[in-house]
Amino acid sequence: MLSVVIPAYNEEKLVAKAARRVSEVLAEAGIDYELVFVDDGSKDGTWQTIKAISEANDNTIGIHFSRNFGKEAAMFAGLEKAGGDAVAVMDCDLQHPPEKLPEMYALWQEGYEVVEGLKRSRGSEGQGHKAAAGLFYKLMSKATGFDMSGASDFKLLDRKVVDSLNSLPEKNVFFRALSYWAGFKTATVYYAVKEREDGESKWSTRKLIRYAITNVVSFTSAPLSLITVLGVVTLIVSVVMTIVALVQKIIGVALGGFTTVIILLLFVGSIIMICLGIIGVYIAKIYDEVKGRPKYIISEMSGHNASGK
Ligand code: UDP
Ligand code: MG
What we know:
Bound molecules: uridine-5'-diphosphate, magnesium ion
Distance between the termini: 17 Å
CATH superfamily of the largest domain: Spore Coat Polysaccharide Biosynthesis Protein SpsA, Chain A
């Protein structure tokens, strides 16, 4: 059986449409499936719609979060509750084309354990957004050692992969990169990002920046090494400046130079501040992990295993 995990946040207009489209495609391809809708604490009627669909269909389950925990948490809740031998994850806004699912499923049947959906085009995004995304994926590709340009959350995973992801103890998860990190036999499927069918993107610029920082920090400690490099650079500069200052003192032209002092003070001061900031980000993440709070809290479930697994 194939489980399709669909995270939804304020998508009341699209939940029913997504359920219908995915069902149509999979039924036509003769694939046995279940739908796992995860309502990420929506403020609109999303949960009521999911509940109604799951009560009317035996093959649909609904999970309702107590508040908005974010898409990563929603996807992991879906992976946890999915019962299929293969599990696909896709967006509720139909930007990930359901028509690709049979192709991904066929690859899985051939023996591939991870089928990555790669974006062929990024759809209608602004230039600034594209540039920022480009930089982020460059950093992530360096951090993970895999080419992550075009990576997305549209994937199909074998039960083995799902179980290994479920067993990770960390709280700051980045699904997109973890499937690369996990390894396994991988195939790729290319798709064109479609226009959102309805509603608007749930990501504000602030949310995206926070998301980028969290994910870079969770995959690499390179920024910490950068601090050491900065330290060495400032040390070299200060050695040169010390020699210059001493020579000036000895030959008796040491007066003046007030501007240099101010510039140096500000320069060194700001580098120290930036470094403290970088260390702070890592400490905050360590603190988050150490608290050991769950990734999400489920307040209600509906559908054939509403009692929970
Ligand atoms: N989503 C979610 N929780 C959030 C934000 C988004 O579950 O806090 C879901 C959303 O309902 C959609 C998917 O994640 O199914 C992708 O979101 P969106 O389309 O807003 O992102 P974009 O396609 O613009 O990257
Ligand atoms: Mg979208």
